[in-house]
Amino acid sequence: MKACVLKAAQNLVLEDRPEPSPGEGEVVVGLGAGGICGSDLHYFAEGGVGEFRLREPLTLGHEVAGQVLAVGPRVSAVKAGDRVAVNPNHACGACRPCREGRRHLCREVRFFGSAARFPHVPGAFAERFVAAEANCFRIPDSVSYAAAACAEPLAVCLHALGKAGAVVGRSVLVTGSGPIGVLLAAAARLGGAAGVWVTDLHDEPLRIARAMGATETVNVRTEPDRLGRQVAESGGFDVVFEATGHPNGLASALSAAAVSGTLVQVGMLPRGQTPTALFPVVARELTLVGSFRFDREYSVAVQAICDGRIDVRPMLTHTFSFSELAAAFETAADRRRAMKVSLAPG
Description:
By secondary structure, the protein is of the alpha/beta class. It has helices spanning 38-46, 96-99, 145-149, 151-164, 179-190, 203-211, 226-234, 247-256, 279-283, 297-306, 325-332, and strands spanning 2-8, 11-16, 26-35, 48-49, 52-53, 58-59, 63-71, 83-86, 89-90, 110-111, 128-132, 136-138, 171-175, 195-200, 216-219, 237-242, 257-265, 287-290, 316-321, 340-344. Helix 8 (247-256) links the parallel strand 16 and strand 17. It starts with a strand and ends with a strand.
């Protein structure tokens, strides 16, 4: 069985791995499609993402959907042949965060394709992989595997939306028009936001943001003063989602928040200290909150895609087979060419 294995930074290969077999409460899924995430790109380019560093070869991939091929003992909710989206997050259920209903912050979480723990947890960019039955959600034939795989990043956005509180009738800013940024725009519009502005350094991803529901887009490279004018005229944005993971993005987000506004940090900031002027947090009584992964939002995300409330098709720009692995990652890293690149065994 072939799998996409990262040996070290810049060293990603297609490699043979043992055939998986399901244990109790588990199923074997044949990969239909998997989306290349920003964290996959960071692992490839830098050998890590945030504080999570590569210490052994790691099969990448956590945004996935496919077909159930085999089921283990005590599996009843899905059967062989079912098409499913797969939640990559497997919590222990016993630690304090799990007991308090915050399984996404589980101390012993096993998350597909992550170097957060050692030994690392293999990802799902493989021809076949094992998943917990409880993490598999059936999808209709009308939804492509590539679209269903977007349930994972959409769940991240729904969790972030929950951290912001109700957005009905409120003004929203999203800094960064990557996959998370455009899905945040779509989720905010679905949540009833009065207007959603999205910023980026390139026009190409901003066009997709508009297709996903943004009411206004700003290229901060070519229109450096436009966002500031809007903030001066309106008094700022009620809710700001920082989705770049860059200190400059955080500084821009802080300066754009309205008095008593809420800033949700969604993008993964770099390792170490992040130099940012935090005076506005005090002087304007801002609420600054972090948002990490998701929990029960995954099933909601699957349903939103399946029933058409969130249309992810505008962001699905490319599909590559495993044999085109290098081209897939090269394309995914080019933000002017690609938004969401999908991998399929082929």
